[in-house]
Write a structure and sequence with these properties.
The chain is an all-alpha fold. It is about 80% helix and about 0% strand.
Length: about 110
């Protein structure tokens, strides 16, 4: 009989990471719907080729990769893994904040 799996190391950071990734998807789709462009070349290619389902899969595969990487690193270097999870949240928040600002600025100009 195998032992139970340990809980995730940084659940709060992972929750924020998934939330921000979801916000990024939704805001990107709003920008594209309004005639804007995706500035990330790889993401733009995925969107052109696979549409919204491809974008969702791409974003969540990246998110799953980062969470998995944090969990693997945490086995030997928990402080480094914690910093990685915090940096991932911070970096993922940048496009969300910028897009919200741009959409608000556009709305105020209208």
């Amino acid at each position: 009989m195998s032992s139970p799996r340990p809980p995730l190391r940084f659940p709060a950071a992972y929750t924020w990471l998934v939330f921000l990734a979801s916000m990024d998807i939704m805001l990107t789709w709003i920008v594209l719907y309004r005639g804007g462009n995706e500035v990330n070349a790889l993401a733009a290619w995925i969107i052109a080729r696979f549409g919204l389902p491809g974008m969702v899969l791409f974003k969540f595969m990246i998110t799953l990769f980062v969470i998995s990487l944090c969990e693997i690193i945490a086995r030997r270097k928990p402080n480094s893994a914690r910093k990685l999870s915090e940096w991932a949240v911070a970096l993922t928040s940048i496009p969300v904040i910028v897009t919200l600002f741009l959409l608000l600025a556009q709305r105020l100009r209208a």
